[in-house]
Amino acid sequence: MLKRWCAVPALLMALSGMAWATDCPEVLQGSLPKLRAKESIDLCQRYAGKPLVVVNTASFCGFAPQFEGLEALNQRYKGQGLEILGVPSNDFKQESKDSAETAKVCYANYGVTFTMTEPQKVRGDDATHLFKVLASQTSAPKWNFYKYVVDRQGKVIANFSSLTKPDDPEFIAAIEKALASPPLVSTP
């Protein structure tokens, strides 16, 4: 009898995990390795129900100074729940093959405190799942520092070209719209 009761919590945990997986928006399914860390970022666990800005970055791109503006947005809105995820990529041949160099540019040169991943593919058939879904909802990045604003439901509400600076009023309006979006509703 005791064995049967011990199995109930395990069964409930397994079922709740299944429910969580179905509640996770498609864009957040999967994980990505964190830049210069031994850990991976479970996208659903970390970002589900939160407004999110996803940006593909490159250390040696002329748009790299946008890291400063993105960090300013991070500081301005993180208290309201905004998350920013930087995804370095060499798809446009402007990222270091050495992740230590990428980390130096992000963290030391620009003072980035938002989450950065190890370099990933962001275009084409080899793109990471996150960018395949972002592209399916809008379009694939056309260059480095292409920005996506994702609401709490996991839907892209706006995307912006590399030319759009982080302090652009339209970009800020999209972030504020994502912040105001209703929370993710779980299904019973």
Automatic annotation (TrEMBL):
All copies of domain Thioredoxin, residue ranges: 1-180
Pfam families noted in UniProt: GSHPx
Keyword hit for Signal: yes
InterPro entries from the UniProt entry: Glutathione_peroxidase (IPR000889), GPX_AS (IPR029759), Thioredoxin-like_sf (IPR036249), Thioredoxin_domain (IPR013766)
Protein name (Swiss-Prot/TrEMBL): Glutathione peroxidase
Record-stated family: Belongs to the glutathione peroxidase family.
Catalytic residues as annotated in Swiss-Prot or TrEMBL: 61
Organism placement in taxonomy: Bacteria, Pseudomonadati, Pseudomonadota, Gammaproteobacteria, Pseudomonadales
Keyword Signal in record: yes
Gene Ontology biological process: cellular response to oxidative stress
Keywords attached to this entry: Oxidoreductase, Peroxidase, Signal
Signal peptide: 1-21
Record GO terms (molecular function): peroxidase activity
